């Protein structure tokens, strides 16, 4: 147990062995951070919940975050290593993100699974990476703008709509923009509205599905509370053996919130980066606080987010 409201301090507040970004990539296997989109295509599940933002807002974030990712790449050096996935350079990161944009654009265009993951999408092929990536963003935005958000569309399973891809791609490029800025030594900041929606996506979409690939780590319900946004989410262990974690929010009753064994609080941006493991141990200790069961809070932060 930790004192009520005190910051999580040092590595003792974190899963054993976590002391750097390099540890994070080991939590999802040798394939690295970029593989989760491809791995998630194997999952058939219920229809993902809608996001808190509307399609035009997601589109605006895709454009803005894409521009920031490109700016970080152009600042360089292109050979800079990505802290959360050290086998990648900035060049690899931008190429991956562009492929994912084009992959999603094709799904939106056809409403069907394209038959392979984003790694099957051709890369720049001799073209300059910067213009190719900018073209990838515009292709995605054009496809989304030309498609009814309610159009039935393949997502990570059946029963989804094109709107899903507006949300998913906004968070895809946001997290990778953070990667790019970390690679060149910046301290990334995420818009609170986008970050809060991103926490919701992790809790309600990514985490439950990813837990199907291995045993969950959650030991008790944990409340995630934003200090700069109204959102709060409850992450609970499976109701029965072999099940998946349950994520609810952002609007909770007081009774639901009170059922948590621990509360992890921070800005929406810091919570998002912690869940995606884009904060090193010393940053977690300074930027998040925990109330209640220390072990439960630690397990929630270490819960599997990607396959």
UniProtKB/TrEMBL annotation:
Residues 193-297 form the MDMPI C-terminal domain. InterPro entries: DinB/YfiT-like (IPR034660), Maleyloyr_isom (IPR017517), MDMPI_C-term_domain (IPR010872), MDMPI_metal-binding (IPR024344). Residues 63-180 form the Mycothiol-dependent maleylpyruvate isomerase metal-binding domain. Pfam families: MDMPI_C, MDMPI_N. It comes from the Bacteria. GO terms for cellular component: plasma membrane. One of its GO terms (molecular function) is metal ion binding. PANTHER family: CONSERVED PROTEIN. This is TIGR03083 family protein.
């Amino acid at each position: 147990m930790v004192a009520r409201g005190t910051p999580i301090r040092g590595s003792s507040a974190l899963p054993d062995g976590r002391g750097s970004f390099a540890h994070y990539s080991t939590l999802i296997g040798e394939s690295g951070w970029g593989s989760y989109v491809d791995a998630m295509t194997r999952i058939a599940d219920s229809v993902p919940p809608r996001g808190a933002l509307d399609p035009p807002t997601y589109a605006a974030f895709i454009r803005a975050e894409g521009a920031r990712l490109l700016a970080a790449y152009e600042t360089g050096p292109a050979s800079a290593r990505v802290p959360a996935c050290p086998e990648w350079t900035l060049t690899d990161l931008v190429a991956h993100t562009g492929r994912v944009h084009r992959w999603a654009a094709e799904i939106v265009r056809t409403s069907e699974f394209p038959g392979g993951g984003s790694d099957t999408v051709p890369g720049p092929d001799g073209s300059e990476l910067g213009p190719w990536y900018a073209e990838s963003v515009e292709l995605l935005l054009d496809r989304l703008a030309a498609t009814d958000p309610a159009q039935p569309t393949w997502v990570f399973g059946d029963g989804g709509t094109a709107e899903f891809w507006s949300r998913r791609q906004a968070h895809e490029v946001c997290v990778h923009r953070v990667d790019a800025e970390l690679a060149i030594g910046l301290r990334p900041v995420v818009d609170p509205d986008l970050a809060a929606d991103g926490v919701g996506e992790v809790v309600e979409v990514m985490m439950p599905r990813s837990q199907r690939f291995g045993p969950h780590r959650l030991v008790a319900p944990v409340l995630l509370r934003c200090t700069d946004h109204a959102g709060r989410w409850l992450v609970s262990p499976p109701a029965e053996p072999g099940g998946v974690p349950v994520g609810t929010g952002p609007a909770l009753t007081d009774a639901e919130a009170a059922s948590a064994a621990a509360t992890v609080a921070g800005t929406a941006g810091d919570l998002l980066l912690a869940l995606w493991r884009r904060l090193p141990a010393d940053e977690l200790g300074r930027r998040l606080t925990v109330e209640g069961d220390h072990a439960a809070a630690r397990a929630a932060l270490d819960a599997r987010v990607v396959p």
